[in-house]
Amino acid sequence: MKKKILIVIFFIVIFSAVLLFYPYNLYHYFTAEEKVKSVFIDSNMRERSFGDDSEILNVKYLGNYIYYVETDENTFLVEIKSSNSSHSIEIFEHNQHITQFKDY
User: Which residues cross the membrane (predicted)?
Assistant: First the structure.
C-alpha cells in the first residue's frame, strides 16, 4: 500500500515539473490573450509598438514566451519576458526578419 502511494506521489511530482519547466508552458497557453492584452492595453503603447492603434484580434502562445499577435492591420511575433517589476518586450513583424520594437 505504501509503495502505491509513493509511486502516485512520484508521478504527480514528475508531471508537475514537466508542466512548469517544459518550454511550451500550458499556463502561458491558457493565459496568453489576457497577458498580451494587459501589456498592450494602452493605445499609445500599441501605436508605438505596432505602428498603429489597431485592436488585437487574436493571440496564440507559440512557446518560449513568444506570442503570435494578430491585429486589424498586420501580424506580429511578440516575445514578452517578465520579472517581478518589469517586462522585456521584443516585437517582430510576421514573415519578415526586421525587429519592429524593443522595450526594456
Answer: 5-24
pTM of the entire structure? 0.70
Among 95, 91, 94, 97, which Cα is nearest to 47's?
A: 91
pLDDT digit string, tens, across residues 3-23: 899 999 999 998 888 777 776
Provide the residue type at 9 as one letter.
I
Say if CB 21 and CB 14 are below 8 A apart.
Answer: no
Residue 54 has phi, psi (to 5 degrees) of -75, 155
- d(C-alpha 104, C-alpha 97), whole Å: 20
**What does the pLDDT read at residue 96?**
65
